[in-house]
């Protein structure tokens, strides 16, 4: 496992149209590869580690 490198993330808004998601788990901020959403609702995004939390939104 070599994904423990923590880089400081600049605080800027993601431009519209750019697919970049960050895990919604408080304090996580990892890249989120799992999206959860009901129809007509905003998506919730979580990383591999916290993807189980996203199932609450389904
Ligand atoms: Zn996470």
Determine the structural class based on helices, strands and strand pairing.
little secondary structure
Question: What about the largest sheet?
Answer: 2 strands, antiparallel
- Written as H for each helix and E for each strand, in order along the chain, the element string is EEH
Q: What's the β-strand tally?
A: 2
> Bound compounds, please?
zinc ion
Percentage of residues in helical conformation? under 10%
List unreliable stretches of 5+ residues.
Answer: none
Number of helices: 1
Q: State the separation between the terminal residues, measured CA to CA.
A: 30 Å
Strand order within the widest beta sheet: 1-2
The fraction of residues in strands falls at 5-15%
Q: Provide the gyration radius in Å.
A: 12 Å
Average pLDDT across residues? 82
**Shape assignment:** elongated
Which tags fit this structure?
58 residues, two-stranded antiparallel sheet, 1 helix, 2 strands, binds zinc ion, GcrA cell cycle regulator
Write the layout of secondary structure elements.
Elements: E1 34-36, E2 44-46, H1 51-54
Antiparallel strand pairs: 1-2
Protein name: GcrA cell cycle regulator
Structural commentary:
This protein has 58 residues and is largely without helices or strands. The protein has 1 helix and 2 strands; from the N terminus they run ββα. It has one helix spanning 51-54; strands at 34-36, 44-46. The chain has a domain at 21-57. The protein starts with 33 loop residues before the first strand and ends with a helix. It binds zinc ion. Zinc ion is lined by residues 23, 25, 28, 30, 46-47, 49-50.
């Amino acid at each position: 496992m070599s994904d423990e490198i923590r880089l400081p993330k600049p605080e800027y808004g993601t431009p519209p149209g750019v697919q970049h998601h960050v895990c919604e788990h408080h304090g996580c901020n990892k890249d989120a590869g799992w999206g959860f959403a009901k129809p007509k609702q905003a998506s919730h995004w979580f990383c591999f580690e916290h993807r189980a939390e996203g199932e609450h939104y389904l």
